[in-house]
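hey m, so remember when u said the tokens were messed up on ur end? i reran from scratch. heres the input so u can diff it against urs
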Amino acid sequence: MSMHPVIEEVTQRITERSHPRRKVYLERIAAARDNGPKRRHLSCGNLAHGFAACGAQDKDALRGAATPNLGIVTAYNDMLSAHQPYERYPELIRGFAREAGVTAQVAGGVPAMCDGVTQGQAGMELSLFSRDVIALSAAVALSHDMFDAAMFLGICDKIVPGLMIAALSFGHLPAVFVPSGPMPSGLPNEEKSRVRQQFAEGKATRDELLEAEAQSYHSPGTCTFYGTANSNQMLMEIMGMHLPGSSFVNPDTPLRDALTAAAVQRAAKITALDNNPDYTPVGHVIDERTIVNGVVGLNSTGGSTNHLLHLVAIAAAAGITLELEDFDAISRVTPLLTRVYPNGYADINHFHSAGGMPFLIGTLLDAGLLHGDVRTVWGQGLDAYRKTPVLEDGKLAWTDPGESGNRNILRPASEPFQAEGGLRVLNGNLGRAAIKVSSVPEDRHVVEAPAVIFHDQDEVRGAFERGELDRDMVAVVRFQGPRAIGMPELHKLTPTLGVLQARGYRVALVTDGRMSGASGKIPAAIHVTPEAVDGGPLGKLREGDMVRLDADAGTLDALVEADEWDAREPVKADLAPHHHGLGRELFALMRNAVGGADAGAGVFATLDSHHAADA
């Protein structure tokens, strides 16, 4: 089927906008490829250090130049349920590599924090910055220049975006991302949500809430709701960085191990050695079309709003300029095809069983909403990603997923849940913001109510418990941006605001912080820029000012007379308590260097503007 004209138009616009930066990027990775892996050029002392700890078989292979050596970059730790399965992967990968006649080494590890543990806590103020720390750590791992391809072991929120930024910085190398899969289903999401809301109203004890949470998050594997971690996995598959159908196969199963073996074999086959015609550098896999495919995937699944930051930063690492308006334009023509919690009560295992990524990619291709002619780690084109992996007589094979197994969870593009994806850009005298409305009731797309001002999410909870919020209101939680305190997620607000909305009040949230992949039924204007700490207009708001959030019209305004608004000075806040403790003092450099949320909230750029302009 021919491409949708809006998808083509947005892709062309991104390509033209990005041309100078992309040209420089491609020239740089071409030069790096021409130099070849430095392993063949290392001094004897350098090389001996590089293979000193290897077994005799691997040492013999590494002495030469013709055998591919795979670098493993791992985010393993055993506190993160999603990453605990990676404990056994290095040994597995080394074994699979030897069977394929190649070598593999753990190049290095990267930090991996769990937003599920730090939600609402001081540690969350390091979370967004951990993305760029991960990118730096992975770059250190690969800087030994011993490798012909890289295998990245990462799942969760900032980890995959950080690894992607690093992979694209080494864009001449093939890069294969290897998932570990979601935990089996636990307590149904509807029941978990009910207990959370009861606790917020004081109708459930902490022990009852903890028991519900423990039944939900109960074993190794990714959390099963559709937050940022599972949005990451969706993106890696629809952008061709995973093997087809591999994202949501449960951990520690024969099929999962077979897919890991196939990922090793594929990484070995796509290196640049010996002028290989199958050479597939990650800098060519990720191009303007791939980025657009990722945005389509995000909208069609109601994915995490964190990717309004992460996809912009990933694109920038490949020399591509992605803007918020691109998300908005694509959202308006991309149908919503899934209902997975918090946009419904099914979990990611139910989605996978209903046909999962192969069905989703197939129906989007058939509707002309995906670029099918992109390069992937599996080869040319996305058609292979229509297939579901299975074991047949112990051997890996791919089959047609057929029709959706449950149309309450997954639908074809011809019969969507909604005609649009639900991501919107808002503009007005309060700045520029984003909102996700895929699960917001239509009668709440527009909220006009008095502002109630907070400088900390805990203040919202306190006001709620004192009975001060039982009314129509717009909760304005400011000084939460990246330069202020690292842009923590404000997921802690969801139950409180959910209770108020359920009581019949018209409520909304406006913040320069984040709401994450768990953004739900409350209208939330997030990522407001310029942020309040930089003198942004959120700082001009006063208690009781009328605020109008209109997701349909794409506006966010304080209904204050223009002369009065212009005359107001933004307030300041004492943020010193947020700048020390739990390591936060070490991140002052990042707070001072970080860019705005609409530019990806990153602390570095892959290409400097001077070189791009010269191109």
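this time it looks ok to me. Confidence is low (pLDDT under 50) at residues 606-615. if urs says something different then somethings off w ur setup not the seq
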